[in-house]
Design brief:
single chain; alpha/beta; 6-stranded mixed beta sheet; Luciferase, domain 3; 24 strands; binds adenosine monophosphate; Rossmann fold; binds malonyl-coenzyme A; GMP Synthetase, Chain A, domain 3; 9-stranded mixed beta sheet; about 525 residues
């Protein structure tokens, strides 16, 4: 596609009309064609309409990946709604915040999420309508309302309309909703698909969750934009993925670095499968967290291919990519996608710095979202009037234009491609009666890249809280991947002259005690 459509939805509808019998999504042994997915989306739209959804209203999706997700997602947009993406691992605290902030008219979940969602939504007047998708079924319980019979589609959304609210952690510990418009999502997907030579002939193996921008914005949108097809798995299983990739059924694979580390371990036990996978799959992409050069090298040795590393963010979609044809440089995230700009600026003055000098990376272009939902202060902090967006990532640009990310200006911990803000975990632990003070920080981890650690000052030094108790306390309130894996009970927290906790000191102490 050499022009950017007004929305991914419009591109999808065009493909469904031009070639309804073409395969779109495969799941287990089922094939969902473009025509069948459009029909499914229309049925979903009718369910939303019957639930009172108006144009501009939000629809919360608390669903794991799969065809039901695709139908619910496209159906919401067809009905003029904006989708709120919700990680299915989120627990009470995270759900309460996202739902009260986004105020969805409808929330969709399945049997696994129903009890928790009912508990969180309550039954007060004005609570969102809860639609339940029974197991193994693609639509909510109950007959499809009459309106679904209509042959014509409602007017499709404009590029400036809100398509998705994607919550991403803020420095305050509270996640904020990035307002992704139809236009910014389509523009980014057009850039990604052009850069990676994605065509209708491609078949993607997608084992990433669909409630984050990696699985959805890159995997699903790229497929729907180009009229290609994907195979959806509910989770990543390294041995099975290796076999599937070796089978010749797929041309593309996208993953976070932890998936590649696991794929490499599986490949060491079955090098012939790895070699075959490397012959069939034309492109392996890694992103969401830094890919270390050792993993890059081990993959090349086993699969005979260089992973293409790219760099993105929820607020902007994909920002940079190593070239498809040119040099894929280990440790670097490549150059800006076509039609998008980037620069490195001084952290304090926000003035551009010369090549080779580390500063904060800023990006600009049609892919940048419209700001944070109902949060003008947070928006003003990082979205600037001249169009530049401050990513909070530190890095430098080489003389030949490649960017390298060296760290983060903010305290973010990235574990297996999931972002964790220390402040959110700290606030949760501070609610525990046995915790007087705490500081959460990241430690290097061979499997997940980074792992969550905490230093705790107990209220009663003679009876510090038990680690199992703290663990259970976190699990009840937060997604399990956010809970600290390493807990240190300390007498006091190291602080600088301003009273600010020195996390680097804690990190060094813990590293010393572990060696
Ligand atoms: C799972 N667990 C993790 C974890 N994932 N712990 C720390 N970090 C993680 N990332 C824990 C669970 O809490 C659970 O703990 C146990 O591992 C088993 O859970 P699981 O669900 O079976 O895990 P698994 O399938 O092995 O998941 C690993 C993974 C997954 C790497 C496949 O984390 C994953 O899909 N990551 C991708 C996330 C992603 O899409 N990020 C993109 C964000 S968008 P217990 O104790 O309960 O047993 C973005 C922008 C961009 O960043 O550029 O793309
Ligand atoms: P999220 O807020 O979940 O969208 O995560 C975005 C963050 O992931 C970015 O700001 C980066 O810190 C990080 N990230 C994504 N891709 C890469 C990459 N290839 N290398 C290093 N960090 C990355």
């Amino acid at each position: 596609m050499d022009h950017t459509p007004p929305s991914i939805l419009a591109a999808f509808v065009e493909h469904a009309r031009a070639d309804p019998g073409r395969a779109c999504a495969r799941q287990d042994d089922q094939v969902l064609t473009y025509g069948a997915l459009l029909r499914l989306a229309q049925d979903w739209a009718a369910h939303y309409a019957a639930s009172g959804l108006q144009r501009g209203d939000r629809v919360g999706l608390f669903l794991p990946g799969g065809a039901a997700f695709l139908g619910a997602y496209l159906g919401a947009q067809l009905q003029g709604g904006a989708v709120v993406l919700i990680n299915t691992q989120y627990r009470q605290q995270e759900l309460r915040h996202i739902l009260s902030d986004s105020e969805p008219r409808v929330v969709v979940t399945d049997a696994a999420g129903a009890a928790l969602m009912r508990q969180v939504l309550g039954e007060a007047a004005g609570a969102p309508v809860l639609l339940l998708v029974p197991e193994g079924v693609l639509l909510p319980a109950g007959p499809v309302p009459e309106e679904a019979q209509r042959a014509t589609l409602p007017p499709l959304p404009a590029p400036t309309d809100l398509a998705v609210l994607a919550y991403t952690s803020g420095t305050t510990g509270r996640a904020r909703g990035a307002m992704l418009t139809h236009g910014c999502l389509a523009a980014n997907s057009a850039a990604v698909t052009a850069a990676w030579r994605w065509t209708a002939a491609d078949r993607l193996l997608l084992t990433l969750p669909l409630f984050h921008i990696h699985g959805l914005g890159v995997g699903v949108h790229g497929t729907l934009l180009t009229g290609a097809s994907l195979t959806l798995w509910p989770r990543f299983e390294p041995e099975a993925a290796l076999e599937a990739l070796a089978s010749g059924a797929h041309t593309l694979f996208f993953g976070v670095p932890t998936m590649y580390t696991r794929l490499i371990a599986a490949a060491r036990a079955a090098p012939e499968l790895a070699r075959r996978a490397g012959q069939h799959v034309r492109l392996f992409v890694s992103g969401s967290a830094p890919l270390d050069p050792q993993t890059f090298a081990a993959f090349e040795e086993l699969f005979g291919q260089r992973i293409l590393e790219r760099y993105g963010m929820t607020e902007t979609g994909m920002n940079m990519t190593n070239p498809y044809d040119g040099e894929r440089r280990p440790g670097a995230v490549g150059l800006p996608f076509p039609g998008q700009e980037a620069r490195v600026v001084d952290v304090q003055t926000r003035e551009p710095v010369p090549d080779g000098v580390i500063g904060e990376i800023q990006v600009r272009g049609p892919h940048v979202c419209a700001g944070y939902w109902r949060n003008p202060e947070a928006t003003a902090e990082v979205f600037h009037s001249d169009g530049w967006f401050s990513t909070g990532d530190l890095g430098w640009r080489s003389a030949d234009g490649y960017y390298t990310i060296t760290g983060r200006a903010r305290e973010l911990i990235i574990s297996g491609g999931y972002n964790i803000y220390p402040r959110e975990v700290e606030e949760t632990l501070l609610a525990h009666p046995g915790v007087a003070e705490c500081a959460v920080f990241g430690l290097p981890d061979t499997e997940f890249g980074e792992r969550v650690a905490v230093a705790i000052v107990p209220r009663d030094p003679a009876a510090p809280p038990a680690p199992e108790d703290l663990d259970a306390f976190c699990r009840e309130r937060l997604a399990a991947y956010k809970r600290p894996r390493t807990i240190h009970i300390v007498a006091s927290l190291p602080r600088n002259a301003m009273g600010k906790v020195q996390k680097h000191v804690l990190r060094e102490r813990v590293a010393r005690s572990e060696t």
